[in-house]
Amino acid sequence: MAQEDQLLPIANVGRIMKQTLPPSAKISKEAKETLQECATEFISFVTGEASDKCRKENRKTLTGDDICWALSALGFDNYAEAIVRYLHKFREAEREKASSQNKAACSYQVDKHNIEESSKDKNGQPNQQQTEEAPTTTLEL
Asked: What is the pTM (predicted TM-score) of this model?
């Protein structure tokens, strides 16, 4: 694999650099390439440490918690604390997202069941009046 295939995309590195600098600042190609190499090396260093931990624990999947552990183990406690907070917020948001999707799906099923039941007469047979005009339901997510 060629070295440039293992580096972070230069466009992404440049975009991140621009976000932290004043709008009028110019960034040389050499500066982008240098930061690209440094950031790639840093990520490989931390990921390698986390990967070693997983290998020792006979695990094949590297998690966000492993990255946080590696950052701490390598002396990057400030980064580890920030990543732990971010990871916690991310997982919380994912749980809320899944919960709201489940509620919407359950609500749809309940509405559908209620419509089907309301379209039957007291003997459980289809109601002739409602059979001609099928009720419509809308689901907003």
From this structure: 0.63
